[in-house]
Specification:
Strand content: 15-25%
Largest sheet: 5 strands, mixed
Number of domains: 3
Structural class: alpha+beta
Low-confidence stretches: 1-6
Order of helices and strands: HHHEEEEEEEEEEHHHHH
CATH architecture of the largest domain: Sandwich
Number of strands: 10
Mean pLDDT: 91
Strand order of the largest sheet: 3-2-1-5-8
Distance between the termini: 68 Å
Bound molecules: dinuclear copper ion
Helix content: 40-55%
Oligomer: single chain
Number of helices: 8
Amino acid sequence: MTSWRVTRPGIFAPCLLLLLLPACDGPQSALAPAGREAELLADLFWIMLAGAVVLWLAINGLMFYVTRINVGHMPRRLAEGIIIGGGIVFPVIVLAALLGYGLTLMPLTRVPGDGLRIRVTGEQWWWRVEYWPEGAEAPVVAANEVRLPSGRRTDIELAAHEVIHSFWIPALGGKTDMFPGRDTLMTLEPLTPGVYRGQCAEFCGESHALMAFQAVVLPEEEFADWLEAEAAPARPPSGPLEAAGQEVFLAQGCGACHTVRGTPATGAVGPDLTHVGSRLTIGAGTLPPTAEALANWIAHPGTIKPGVEMPSYDELAPDDLAALAAWLEGLE
Ligand code: CUA
């Protein structure tokens, strides 16, 4: 009876772990790599885990040996052998091997990019994203979404405006901190087209947890087409509702903070909205890009993202708010 009580948790713990394994998949998992850097890190994780398991088994095996098998008096040389061998020699060999393997990976993550450069700046709490194709004199400015060509190495220059943030797309690579006043660099080589999720990984204030983004990996040609479309000015309003929405935007002074290329709005405080309707989310990964969500965001940004610098426009007439949201949704 006693032994049954002792072993039951021993049986259930591995079963519970097996149940948790499906959680290792998905668009934001470092264990479901979709890029060269993430593959290296996933391999490193599994090899580190194997090393840890070997150490754990060896040390627990020794403990079992001295407490259950050889419980009597032990010759001094054997006791010293167990302590020195198990406590010093064996861990040093395993840890040195793991360190050596880890060091061999470092140069592989430092291979420079092959043309495109993207500059991402952490803001409170959103991402300013600037694309610099090779030889470009001015960037293509976007926000809150990072698009990358698959099979190419892209340099990602990281900066921050006010406080430290950390740029992390688990499925594509490791995390790198973003500092005010000091640029850092990471290079990513995505391998599998798809949509992955990125997240700020450094506590940066009350809406840190709501500072996410989508990372969209496109085949190279599709990426080139997308970047060309992204560089173009906003499309003109397609009907009276959208035209009214654009008028509300300009009359309310939204252009003091936001740029919509092709209109008089050239503000640089908030996210560039030239193609906001084509993004997969709004509010840096918090809401879908629908007119309803846009209206909700404009009226109550502080409720959706506490501490956000954008003021609430809850005094707007419902018709104006609907027109404004319709125009923004149409900015593809
Ligand atoms: Cu930005 Cu946490």
